[in-house]
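Inverse folding, one chain.
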């Protein structure tokens, strides 16, 4: 996810203006501008800037009234923050397997819905959408809100629309590894005005920012926390947002170079992408059924300094099989997690993700794609 690749003088100038004009205030004009422009890009009525993607998920759950005794369904392949937010509001994470799209297995979803289920969090991992039409259909049937974790797929589409406006709430991250970056930061989008107001209040200690009162005498209706973002983060975000169309376009060019080479290889499968989804293409993921061959390919990639992304290099932080510390209250052991997520393990352990860099010359990408192809062919 290449936002950090494109940090240059435009971000530096925007930040310097804050100091030059002595405008170092929270929730100032740049935050409001960033929210407005982000909402316009996504096609959402409301956007609320917060301190991180993790905070975005927690705020969404808190403002939906989710608490101890409630259950929230999500998927096994995600960043640990998704589950941390669920646990931090006191709810119980109900984690289901992924399928060959490496996102939520919709066939398992309905089986895990109970009277305690208060939200569903599909995660659009590494640029590819979960099966949103099917997930939303099930959620509607049971009248359960859907909170998208779209921290890794900004710029993807679902049909003609941007991915992220199909559900009740969508959460976004702008940390250093995301599509666009503000260093740290996040956003919550929704078309529900009442929820958007709650998000704003909760991120700011409950402040309603009532225009009839000075801040020190402001009104409130809920308690909150400090999940505000800063003018510096927002200034960087505004500049990064201008580069997003370029990122999406250049990602796709390089993705197609890899795809062309990999499709020539027998016994190799590319990650399944839902029909309605136009992915972000920030990486390309392929799989081979033979686990021993995958291990040999990874050793050779390491020798050639060809890096991977999350699968498998950071899998311990992106796969619930390793998170027995999260499930302590549920008294689920490591062995039980391994059994529970056998299906997910099958897909993830046989997959390799190759990152895409937008500043890399197309000739260099072509060279790397051919080198990758040759390595794979030598083992399959």
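Residues assigned per position:
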């Amino acid at each position: 996810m290449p936002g950090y690749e494109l940090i240059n003088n435009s971000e530096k100038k925007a930040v310097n203006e804050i100091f030059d004009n002595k405008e170092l205030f929270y929730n100032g004009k740049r935050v409001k501008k960033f929210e407005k422009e982000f909402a316009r890009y996504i096609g959402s009525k409301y956007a609320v800037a917060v301190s991180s993607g993790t905070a975005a998920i927690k705020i969404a759950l808190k403002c939906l009234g989710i608490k101890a005794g409630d259950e929230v369904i999500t998927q096994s392949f995600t960043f640990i923050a998704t589950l941390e937010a669920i646990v931090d509001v006191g709810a119980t994470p109900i984690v289901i397997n992924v399928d060959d799209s490496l996102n939520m297995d919709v066939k398992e979803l309905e089986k895990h819905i109970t009277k305690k289920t208060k939200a569903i969090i599909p995660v659009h991992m590494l640029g590819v959408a979960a099966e949103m039409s099917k997930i939303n259909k099930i959620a509607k049937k049971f009248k359960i809100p859907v909170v998208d974790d779209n921290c890794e797929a900004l710029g993807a589409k679902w049909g003609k629309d941007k991915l992220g406006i199909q559900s009740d709430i969508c959460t976004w991250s702008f940390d250093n590894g995301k599509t666009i970056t503000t260093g740290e930061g996040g956003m919550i989008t929704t078309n529900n005005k009442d929820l958007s107001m709650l998000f704003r209040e909760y991120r700011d200690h409950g402040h309603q920012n009532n225009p009839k009162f000075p801040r020190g005498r402001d009104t409130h209706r809920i308690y909150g926390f400090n999940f505000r973002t800063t003018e510096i983060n927002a200034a960087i975000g505004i500049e990064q947002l201008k580069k997003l169309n370029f990122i999406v376009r250049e990602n796709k060019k390089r993705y197609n170079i890899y795809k062309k080479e990999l499709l020539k290889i027998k016994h190799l499968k590319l990650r399944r992408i839902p029909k309605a989804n136009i992915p972000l293409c920030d990486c390309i993921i392929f799989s081979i059924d033979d686990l021993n061959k995958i291990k040999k390919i990874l050793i050779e990639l390491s020798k050639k300094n060809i890096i991977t992304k999350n699968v498998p290099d950071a899998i311990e932080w992106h796969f619930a099989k390793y998170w027995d510390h999260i499930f302590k209250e549920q008294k689920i052991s490591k062995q039980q997690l391994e059994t529970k997520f056998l299906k997910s393990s099958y897909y993830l352990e046989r997959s390799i993700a190759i990152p895409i860099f937008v500043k890399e010359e197309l000739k260099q990408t072509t060279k790397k794609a051919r080198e990758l192809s040759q390595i794979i062919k030598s083992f399959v």
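The first strand starts at residue 46 and ends at 50. The mean pLDDT is 96.
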